[in-house]
Automatic annotation (TrEMBL):
Known cofactor(s): Zn(2+)
Keywords for this protein: Hydrolase, Metal-binding, Metalloprotease, Protease, Zinc
UniProt KW Zinc keyword: yes
Top-rank lineage group of the source organism: Bacteria
Transmembrane segments: none
UniProt record similarity statement: Belongs to the peptidase M48 family.
GO molecular function, one term: metalloendopeptidase activity
Entry's Gene Ontology cellular component terms: membrane
GO biological process: proteolysis involved in protein catabolic process
Protein's name according to its UniProt entry: Peptidase family M48
PANTHER family referenced in this protein's UniProt entry, alphabetically: METALLOENDOPEPTIDASE OMA1, METALLOENDOPEPTIDASE OMA1, MITOCHONDRIAL
Length: 273
């Protein structure tokens, strides 16, 4: 019986194998958008009700303008590459939360939160675009669905039941709080190093597609390092160290420009609205 169950699990996971566009990384995802997105949208709405949305009009407008520019670039990419149904499933939304936490996150389906505490690290519009590109990349690459798939593998059956409730019962609440940490003092729980590195790369490509300066993706992590953020030794953290991210982004910059140029037909700097 155990052998049969194991074979079934392997078969399911093989069916869920796909490739992340641009990076080409193989991923396993058995959680459908129909399962995860209603829960994501419900949790995001609940988060906004329970936290202080910034009343700073200038900062909020900048976050939302950058978010829309990058999400539009991602939307164009998806539609140009046969990902129309996926593009249609996103419900992009960008909110600034009045909180000193140095963090930002994006839930599946394009629900983004910036905390005011990260704005000094961003320092400028291009810095905001670097962080925004990174967070949007998590949604684009379906890192949240992969996290759910991992949990699914650990708790067969339970995830589907919880997701089906769209986050309304205690089981779903526990699931989302465990995986995403919504409402916690540190914001979203860390993705794996693989996901973080991939989001750094994709985010750089996306910010170039949207017409922003990709050098700021590097400078954001220089400022983060100078600010003392993520000072933990790398082997103790699921995130790459600041130094590793800086080195990786510098090395990836020419590749990111090539990807963006290819998509933008040779015009890296789109007009930003």
């Amino acid at each position: 019986m155990k052998k049969i169950i194991s074979l079934i699990v392997v078969f399911i996971f093989l069916l869920g194998c796909s490739t992340v566009p641009i990076t080409g990384r193989k991923r396993i995802n058995v959680v459908s958008d129909d399962e995860i997105l209603p829960a994501s949208f419900a949790q995001y709405e609940g988060f906004l009700k329970e936290n202080k949305v910034s009343t700073n009009v200038k900062q909020t407008n900048e976050i939302q303008n950058v978010g829309m520019n990058i999400s539009k670039a991602v939307d164009r990419f998806m539609r140009a590459n046969g990902m129309v149904s996926e593009a249609d499933s996103y419900r992009w939304e960008f909110n600034l939360i009045d909180d000193n936490t140095v963090n930002a996150w994006c839930m599946p389906g394009g629900k983004v939160v910036f905390y005011t505490g990260i704005l000094p690290i961003c320092a400028n519009t291009d810095g905001i675009a670097a962080v925004m590109g990174h967070e949007v990349a998590h949604a684009f690459a379906k890192h949240g669905q992969e996290r759910m798939t991992t949990a699914y593998g650990q708790q067969l059956g339970g995830i589907a039941v919880a997701l089906g409730t769209s986050g309304q019962d205690s089981e779903a609440q526990v699931l989302w709080n465990t995986i995403y940490g919504v409402g916690s003092q540190v914001g979203m729980l860390a993705y794996s190093r693989t996901h973080e590195t991939e989001a750094d790369k994709l985010g750089m490509v996306f910010m170039i597609m949207a017409g922003y300066n990709p050098e700021e993706a590097i400078q954001v992590w220089v400022r983060m390092s100078e600010n003392g953020g993520s000072s933990q030794p790398e082997f103790l953290s699921t995130h790459p160290s600041n130094e590793t991210r800086i080195e990786n982004l510098r090395a990836y910059l020419p590749t990111a420009i090539t990807h963006a140029k290819k998509f933008n037909s040779g015009n890296v700097s789109n007009n930003k609205q």
